[in-house]
Amino acid sequence: MISRIILAIGLLLAPPVAAQTNSSVRLDVPYVPTPPFVIKAMLDLAKVGPDDVVYDLGSGDGRIVIDAVQTRGVKRAVGIDLNPVQVADANANAEKAGVTDRVTFTVGDVFKEDLSPATVVTMYLLPNVNLRLRPRLLDHLKPGTRVVSHAFHMFDWPPDAQEKVLGEVPIYMWIIPAKVQGTWTGKAGEGSFTFSLAQKFQVVSGLLTREGQKPVALNGQLAGNELMVIGNDGVSLRGKITGATLIGAITLAGAPQDIVLTRQ
Ligand SMILES: C[S@@+](CC[C@H](N)C(=O)[O-])C[C@H]1O[C@@H](n2cnc3c(N)ncnc32)[C@H](O)[C@@H]1O
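^ thats the input. predicted complex w/ S-adenosylmethionine below
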């Protein structure tokens, strides 16, 4: 137990270091490997499977990337590390594991590389690095992409799931939410509906207005592209967002009706 705590504290306290082969490269996080039992829990929490493309940000010796291919049979896995020594080590480990056909290790900066192909992102960075990365994750990853972090959170972005591995090591998972903030209008049956939605990460609030009815306050949540909001009078909207269109169902007085909403 003590050794695991020391590992996390060590990463937290370690100063930024220069990569071994190139002193002009300053790492945002020193190398500390994730133990295998934590990797298993991270991949389980994100429900990683054969359809996934996994990116490990700051991939070290490649263990998460290689494990994702070996134990989950993912389509493809990519590691990005600023330190060329780590990337050489990761490539040698992929060779030994016989997974070079499905893994790529790139010398690169997680603040600059294209992350958009990922369906799952793993990371063991530091709290302030997570915070700096947050806007990139939210803007560049597809809605629905799962992000799993070993040890460190994302401040006021609440995780969609979390656990303490063996009761000790925290891991967190977030699902990249679609962007729903704005005004959405549409018809269901005879009624016209206007949803004015505000969003903070995956948490949604807003107002539903209908002709001849009092506005209704709404609260809800996004899970990737899937939106669910409930009004304080029992009305609910559930639907899938694709770009500027939401297709789903509105439930009024217990009766669901199909609805298509368009963002104004
Ligand atoms: C704590 S280690 C995690 C290694 C691996 N992901 C694991 O969990 O076993 C962090 C890694 O991030 C790399 N790193 C630090 N800053 C980086 C940056 N800006 N871009 C890419 N990699 C970076 C370091 O070289 C180190 O290998």
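The domain at 182-263 is CATH 2.40.128.120 (Lipocalin).
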